[in-house]
Amino acid sequence: MIQFKNLCTTPLEEIVRVFNLAFSDYFVPIKTSEEALQRKFLVEKVRLDVSVGAFENDQLVGFVLHFGTIVNGEKILYNGGTGVIPSHRGQNLTCRMITHCLPLIKTEGFSKIKLEVFAINSFALKAYQKMGFKEIRLLNCFKGKLLEGQKRNESVRVAKMETIDWTVLKLFWDLEPTWQNAEHTLVSLGEKIDFYGALLKEELVGYVVFNPMERRIHQLAVAPKYRKQGVASGLLQDIAEKEKELVSFINIDTRIEIEGVLEEFGLENFAQQLEMELLLTD
Ligand SMILES: CC(C)(COP(=O)(O)OP(=O)(O)OC[C@H]1O[C@@H](n2cnc3c(N)ncnc32)[C@H](O)[C@@H]1OP(=O)(O)O)[C@@H](O)C(=O)NCCC(=O)NCCS
């Protein structure tokens, strides 16, 4: 018989083992370690009390990992990992796990659960749709080695930013970033990430946020009136000089006009994800 309970007392080692088994046949190779998962738990603020495991004979066979934050006074939960080991799929375990923790999630005052899912992951999509998750937007995922020496605006000077004023940076946005690139995640990453500003006659006209440990770009934005002037190219050139290995830049709203410059710098659009949401307020 399958039992459901929160993950507060499940050893991290066990979660990692089952995570890796559940993702062993995934579209893109995903293998985590205790250290990496612990880091994710800390940065993205895991809520093990409202995360859930499916147990058979006390053995973990499936999990839903929830992370929580408050944005503009609204309590939001993020599903940052769902997995069922191959031998236990097709038993509606995903819905049963989420259903198990929903009453507590509602009592805790969360207004919605957000997640991202690969558009081609039909198993997961079906499970989330059955639960009532709705598609919010389509996202592009890029990766590749950044090419150096692309055309750029030579008047732009790129410099590391020491102080971050989010009210200014947000003026450069067209749309809200997704969870892992959002302000609250970047604030929590703290000194693990670097902000580089593009300066034109000492005015900040764009910026990029780079995570050297994960080799990941989190944000790239240029002030509307300085677009199409080689500013983003200046910022990407700067990262290209610092990082020679494969980098990723994922979950970018497809409505943002960014594909051109990323492809020019050698990044490939390798997948599309769907951002989904389950509203909890009746
Ligand atoms: C996605 C995943 C969590 C779904 O878990 P699950 O509890 O088995 O899901 P369900 O039992 O609700 O099945 C969902 C759909 O997948 C399909 N499916 C699942 N297992 C299947 C199997 N063994 N054979 C055929 N179809 C299967 C069915 O179409 C089912 O839809 P239906 O119930 O309307 O027929 C699981 O497949 C998994 O761990 N995959 C790898 C990790 C992953 O993709 N995580 C999600 C990241 S967003």
Write the layout of secondary structure elements.
Blueprint: E1 2-6, H1 12-22, H2 34-44, E2 52-56, E3 59-71, E4 74-84, H3 93-107, E5 112-118, H4 122-131, E6 134-145, E7 157-160, H5 166-169, H6 183-189, E8 194-200, E9 203-211, E10 216-222, H7 231-242, E11 246-253, H8 259-264, E12 268-279
Parallel strand pairs: 4-5
Antiparallel strand pairs: 1-2, 2-3, 3-4, 5-12, 6-11, 6-12, 7-8, 8-9, 9-10
Helix pairs in contact: 3-4
Bound heterogens, unique: coenzyme A
Share of helix among residues? 25-40%
CATH architecture of the largest domain: 3-Layer(aba) Sandwich
Helix/sheet category:
alpha+beta
Strand order of the largest sheet: 1-2-3-4-5-12-6-11
Overall radius of gyration: 20 Å
Question: What is the count of structural domains?
Answer: 2
User: Mean pLDDT, rounded to whole units?
Assistant: 96
CATH topology of the largest domain: Aminopeptidase
Span between N and C termini? 32 Å
Shape: elongated
Please outline the major beta sheet. 8 strands, mixed
What is the string of helix and strand elements?
Answer: EHHEEEHEHEEHHEEEHEHE
Count of beta strands = 12
* CATH superfamily heading of the largest domain: Gcn5-related N-acetyltransferase (GNAT)
Please count the helical segments.
8
